[in-house]
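Give me a protein, keeping tokens residue-aligned:
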Amino acid sequence: MNPLHRNLIVVAIVVVVIAAGVTLRVVVQNCLSQTNPMLVDQSEIPDSLDPGETFSTPGWAAVQQVYQGLVNYNGTSVTNFSGVLAENWTESYVYNPDANFGVGANTSTYTFTLRPGVHFSNGDSYNAYVQWYSFYRSLLLAGGPQFILEENFYSTNFNASSPLNYSSNLTLIDQANATLASDLNTWNFFSPTQSEVSLMELPNQSFQVINNLTIQLNLGYGYLSSNYTYLFASISAPNSYAVDPKVVDANGGVVVGQPNSWMASNMVGTGPYTLGYYNGLPGGGYSLLPDPNYWGKAAAAQEPWNNNLQPANTTVDVVFQDSVDVTTNDLIVGDVASASFAYIGPATVHVLQGKTCLVVQALSTIYGSTSGSWWIYMDQNSFPFDNLSVRAAVAHAINYSQIYQQAFGGYATPWVGPVPPAYPYYNPANLPPYSYNLTLAREEIANSPCAHGACSSLTIKYEYLDTGIDWAEMAQFLKGDLHQIGINILPVPISLDDLYEEQALTAGVCTTQTGANGGPFPMGQEFYTSDYVSPDDWTQNDAQYYGSANQCESEYDNQTVTNDTFLAASSANATTLTDLYTNMTSAMYWNYTDIWLVVPTAFAVYSTHVHGIIQNPMASAEPFAFFFNTQWISP
């Protein structure tokens, strides 16, 4: 039987109360059709179950239940971290005036003492050599999330006097990677030879083994070439998690620059869950089973405050269900205990609110910022958006209040990018969000190539996300607003997968510039979802010229801003950071690079019978709750 089969029978409990000689029959409707396993509707399918490859929210949601890293967020905090595979750590600063990387820069070294007795669910042991393997394997895969590690770390050439770094010669990098891949595929990391241990212990490499239960992380070898304020946030991401070398070796090994197909749909980790079932197709899903031999039970008892360590309470069955209407009904009738929507707007919220058996919890702004902050892009290399006055006119022709109140029901926050609200260094100069000023918009259009209706014969295709009535209404409001200044747009709904495709280059050509998905789209809706809570995670994607949410949309190319993103990511000085983020924000603001539109309010939706939810902005709302292990269902 498919373990994701749903029991559709809703149980009615009949309670008999006897008072003053009168028998009163009270029928109580049970809120859930079943309590174990815990059933969850999820709108999106993981891109991969390989922690070194996954680069999507649903992928991270699955991986972090089974795999573990050195540290992770402490409860709901976004700035404090708890040890997971690491028991404790120390930090020291190293000055490298003569190094061929980060010249003259102070860099940090973090030494992590690992927990003894950790093992994978198959019984294989975990140690510093396995963690060394896992870090370097992740770098060699060269998939989507590699930039997270490459901010600070890089592959190794086992040369202490001339170590490999991000800026090394490409031929030398290729040679070193080939050697490293061969080593990863042939060494025994549970019991390495002395010569192998000596190579892992070499100084001046990103990941340095000190002994069997101690590993040192040396910053400065990545593209930042210096210190990094948000290191612990970055290594809380899945591509820093420990994988079993024996399992990888038995299923294709490590191939430089190539994903591992077996790892993409199977999981063997050190975490509190094992994977019982996986079907990565629409209508499929996966099952998470509590590991009866989970290593962390004793450690969790010693650290009851550490939610990262707690053993799992109940089996979880996640069903890939992309219909908003079906998911909404499943929640209302109790067929699922919780649900995750690609986007949950006010229309859906209004349907769910007030239902006795449901918690519909509006979350603070940082949750909305992390799960998706949205803007309108205008391609600066496409007419008429190659003109500053046209972009300014568009920015001031939009009736923002109407969009916030009517399209989003008031569940929205205006913002000024590129860093979203509630993040460190958000809009340091307190620039006001763009305002609706039709007089100003018409003045700007009169000073542009679109003056006197010159652009009214153009039909500009505008792509927007087809997830329900909210974005469709927003697109229609936008169409009406821009018509007032002689700009005519044709809203075209596209799927989330199509929206991701629009961000991509094929043979050097942006999909937005082709006829794919109904395009080309010189204008459209764009958003970003954080990998972790740091301002540079945003600016490296929506401000840098080649950022994933910029290069094929706005095509904003400002070398000063690009340089500032790197300087800000590598600085720890608050005054310097304030200046850098002020410069970036102001430059993009007055360039009208993007119309920073809205941060929709994030919601967690789950049954009143679900307990133990510990949310964190990195993971957004349920079921992308940080971990399922602390959750349980009352009967």
About this structure: The chain has a mean pLDDT of 89. The first helix runs from residue 57 to 66. The radius of gyration is 26 Å. The chain has 19 helices and 25 strands.
